[in-house]
Design a protein that fits this description.
The chain has 317 residues and is α/β, with parallel strands linked by helices. It is built from nine helices and 13 strands. The longest helix has 29 residues.
């Protein structure tokens, strides 16, 4: 194989992540010809709508996966947290790259969440972040904020490229620390949030390489990119998500770590939309899928099922 077409979103972060994968492939196989194929997704087209209204998981991946199935590209690079837990027919995860820091970053002229004055306005499109924030600071106003990393930083009053700032600034917003680091913008983070208080999304910080399951030669070619500890961690987190989600965006977080003995330790939480109620817990084990499923079933039995029913009912209104 001498040429590979790599499908990706058009956002600066997605292109940066794709270039990192391409550079690793080029270094490993100097004779390889690589072509990046930017693809616009439904999530990119509908920037004004809340993510929860756009049809569940996969809003940033469906068109890319369709292109992969249709042989428009040979592999795809995704932020793994965007991938639906159920893989489309004929597609597999060829590699999961070593994870960047999975934590959330807060960006605000006030510095930290605790320093925000009562009634301050924070922007996010994430139900998880909205709920986590409501649990910690129910006195704040939360507004929907969509867009790429640069536009969200500008909305929080950060001038990235000398452009004109909006006349009305938010008092703060959230971004994944991993994305900021990959773009060289992590210096703008004013607080890195403790996962024990503010859990990240399942698989946050991980990059997935997806390909067709019948492409054995390409599977072998990308195998060196796979990072075992990251794959095990995100497998546990995604197994938890798969049991909990029911195909829609929900206010929940999960973070797993591979311990020194090789076991998996998973901590997770599910919340009401306003964060006023939640259930949380942790689970240890050796099989990532089993750890995630066991914790999900335990939290559902502990009240998570009632919380999710309430959330889904509110989202339908």
């Amino acid at each position: 194989m001498t040429g590979i077409r790599i499908g990706t979103r058009r956002s600066p972060l997605a292109l940066q992540q794709t270039q990192a994968v391409a550079a690793a492939l080029q270094q490993r196989y100097p004779g390889l010809t690589l072509q990046v194929v930017p693809i616009e997704t439904g999530g990119d087209r509908n920037t004004d709508a809340a993510l929860s209204s756009l049809g569940g998981t996969g809003v940033f991946t469906r068109e890319i996966e369709a292109a992969l199935q249709g042989c428009v590209c040979d592999l795809a690079v995704h932020s793994m947290k965007d991938l639906a837990t159920a893989m489309p027919d004929g597609l597999v995860l060829g590699a999961v790259l070593q994870r960047e820091d999975p934590r959330d970053a807060f960006i605000s002229p006030f510095g930290t969440l605790s320093a925000l004055p009562r009634g301050a306005v924070v922007g996010t499109s994430s139900l998880r972040r909205r709920a986590m924030l409501g649990r910690l600071r129910p006195d704040l106003e939360v507004v929907n904020l969509r867009g790429n990393v640069h536009s969200r930083l500008r909305a929080a009053g950060i001038d990235i490229d000398g452009g004109r700032l909006p006349s009305r600034k938010l008092d703060g917003t959230f971004l994944a620390l991993a994305g900021l680091r990959r773009l060289g913008l992590d210096g703008h983070a004013t607080q890195v949030l403790d996962p024990s208080l503010f859990l990240p999304a399942p698989a946050q910080g991980a990059i997935a390489v997806q390909l067709r399951e019948d492409d054995a030669s390409l599977m072998d070619l990308v195998a060196f990119l796979d990072h075992d500890a990251t794959r095990r961690s995100v497998t546990a987190e995604r197994a938890f998500l798969q049991v909990m989600e029911g195909g829609c965006q929900l206010p929940l977080g999960a973070l797993a770590q591979v311990e020194d003995d090789g076991g998996i330790h998973l901590f997770a939480m599910v919340l009401t939309l306003d964060g006023a109620e939640h259930v949380e817990g942790d689970e240890r084990g050796t099989i990532p899928q089993s750890v995630g499923e066991a914790l999900a079933h335990r939290l559902l039995a502990a009240g998570g099922d009632a919380i999710l029913a309430r959330v889904k009912n509110e989202l339908r209104r």
